[in-house]
Amino acid sequence: MDWYLLLLFAHILAGIGLLSALCVEAVGFLGMRRSVTGNQGHSWLVVQRNAVRFETIAMATAVVAGIWMMAARWGPEAWTVTALAAIVGMAALTATVTRRGLKRLATGRTDGDNASDVAVAMKRRLGRSLWIRIGIGIGILALMTSKPQGPASAGILLAAIVGGVVGAEL
Fold first, then answer.
1. Where do runs of H (alpha helix) occur along 70-150?
2. For 62-110, how does the pLDDT look when each residue is reduced to its tens digit (9 = 90+)?
3. Alpha carbon distance 62, 105 (integer Å)
4. Which of 40-44, 49-53, 56-60, 113-117 has the lowest mean pLDDT?
5. Residue 150 — left, alpha, or beta (φ > 0 → left; ψ -120 to 50 → alpha)?
6. Cα-based distances in Å from 124 to 70, 93, 131, 169
7. Are 101 and 126 in contact, with CB atoms under 8 Å apart?
């Protein structure tokens, strides 16, 4: 049995799972933004939190399989290192912005601020985080398919992140 093929399958499946979970999170985010009542908003928040949990599992699986494949066959080429840095950045953004924002909205903590203003600000941050992570995911997909060498790898990722930032502002 060729272990590389098994790792490749796990890696691709994790990538599909990650991008699918980001889509589910996006649906939850749009539903939350359009909610009229607190109960509706909370229901969509649950959808987002579950999607983020799945994203975390998918990211971990993609990283483990990717590092193993990199060690076994590819080595530290520009596109592999850039993709690894990108998914680590995506995980950091998920942990620091998305998880904290969802928790703050779910618990209703406002720290003495106007609850409505805090909710609007949190939703804006969550939207930016989501769009940037979608951009990073698309950038990683571009790196995996084109396998560019040298600075082109960083350029592809940067373009994808800029695309995510622009998408968040539309």
1. 78-93, 100-107, 115-146
2. 999 999 999 999 899 999 999 999 999 999 999 999 999 888 888 876 4
3. 29
4. 113-117
5. left
6. 37, 14, 11, 9
7. yes
Nearest C-alpha neighbor of 11 from the set 82, 3, 51: 3
Q: What is the pTM of this model?
A: 0.89
Mean pLDDT of 35-46: 84
Structure tokens at 76: 């530290």
Q: The tokens of 163 are what? A: 């695309």
Cβ contacts of residue 91 below 8 Å, gap of 6+? 56, 59
Burial level of 25, CB count in 10 A (0-12/13-18/19+)?
buried
Rounded CA-CA distance 56/39 in Å is 26
Cα angle for residues 29, 33, 35 (degrees, 5° grid): 115
